[in-house]
């Protein structure tokens, strides 16, 4: 057995399946416990919670390695979320293909917060995009001048549907979880969720049914490699 799963009693197929269920669907740990019981697998919800905390970040990291170089057009947007009864802001960046580049939870959405998010993006992706698309929030202009002054900046709320649509699965998950308790736990969960969930959400509206099935099969093959259920070619 790979060292990744060393010391765990259950086989990797069950562990990976539970992590997949939790990050792809709006299921609680108890829901997954019930689903696994129906299949004859006796595992507690606390064990499933441990698997998601232990293996989720590792799976997300491996998936990130397999994502091609991001496109040259980045869409940025921010939405408010409730954490422990307090209003925070979730910043998100995606490329023109809908791939999530990064997320960051912050308490404000001023110029300093926007600049901090830009720094995080550039640290991860090394080079700025050709085009940056945001809404008309003035904070983006401040961060653009400071961090990406050579990048073309388009501010138009009608051009930013790509990033706004990327928020929807997070909203669904937030409602299912009845909000988040702390900023750190929300950041950890959403960093993993924003990598695993989109992997299984190809843009179906832009492809034929046969192409969609083929794309899903390819993505499941990648998942099997990431979770070490098959060996990468």
From TrEMBL:
Every DDE domain range: 72-200
Keywords: DNA recombination, DNA-binding, Transposition
One Pfam family per UniProt: DDE_Tnp_IS240
Keyword DNA-binding attributed: yes
Protein's UniProt keywords contain DNA-binding: yes
Matches recorded under NCBIfam families: transpos_IS6
Entry protein name: IS6 family transposase
Protein's organism: Rhodococcus baikonurensis
């Amino acid at each position: 057995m790979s060292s990744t799963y060393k010391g765990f009693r259950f086989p990797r197929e069950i562990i990976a399946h539970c992590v997949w269920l939790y990050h792809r669907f709006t299921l609680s740990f108890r829901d997954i416990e019930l689903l696994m019981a129906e299949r004859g697998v006796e595992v507690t919800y606390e064990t499933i919670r441990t698997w998601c905390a232990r293996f989720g970040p590792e799976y997300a990291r491996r998936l990130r390695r397999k994502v091609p170089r991001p496109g040259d057009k980045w869409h940025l947007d921010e939405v408010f979320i409730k954490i422990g009864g307090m209003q925070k802001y979730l910043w998100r960046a995606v490329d023109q293909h809908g791939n999530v580049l990064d997320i960051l939870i912050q308490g404000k959405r001023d110029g300093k917060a926007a600049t901090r998010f830009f720094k995080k993006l550039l640290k991860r992706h090394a080079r700025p995009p050709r085009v940056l698309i945001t809404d008309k929030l003035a904070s983006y202009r401040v961060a653009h001048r400071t961090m990406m002054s050579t990048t073309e900046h388009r501010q138009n709320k009608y051009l930013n549907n790509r990033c706004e649509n990327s928020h929807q699965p997070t909203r669904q998950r937030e409602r299912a979880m009845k909000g988040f308790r702390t900023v750190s736990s929300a950041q950890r969960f959403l960093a993993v969720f924003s990598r695993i969930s989109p992997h299984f959400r190809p843009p179906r509206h832009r492809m034929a049914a046969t192409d969609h099935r083929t794309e899903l099969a390819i993505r499941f093959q990648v998942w099997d490699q990431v979770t070490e259920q098959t060996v990468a070619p």
